[in-house]
Structure prediction request, 152 residues.
Amino acid sequence: MKEAPFIVGLYEWISLPELGVIGLRAKIDTGASTSSLHATDIEVFNRNNKKWVRFTAHIGTLVQRGHRCEAPLVSTKTIKSSNGLSQSRYVITTQLTLGNHTWPVEFTLACRRTMQYRVLLGSKALIDGEILVNPALSYVQSKPSFTLLPPN
Prediction:
């Protein structure tokens, strides 16, 4: 018997357990290929002869709380925004939890201070997670609940 498709709405609650970030509101954007996470105070450093990135992830929209995170640096990527401007961004891969699904997602780190949603979930993440989007719905999946993984 075929498993039912995993359907999400235009907006959903997500968590990034490896980063210790719980309950972020994300905009699902099938028009963007890459996912993006609002990050500030970004700095690259070496750990065990590998490049890592340290940054502050911002949780909340009206009242913001900063959370310091560290992750291995995967690459840098030039991203062309919807307004046509190109920007070089650091890229990390971390586990994303949406509803009862968890899978690795590649995120670019960018200042999304002026954006309503701190996370943009792009089409590559949706394909990798085998997600179907119904843009007429919002918050179809419940807020993820789990035990946080220890910091890297």
About this structure: Confidence is low (pLDDT under 50) at residues 146-152. The longest strand covers residues 35-47. Residues 42 and 55 are 4 Å apart (CA to CA). The longest helix spans residues 123-128.
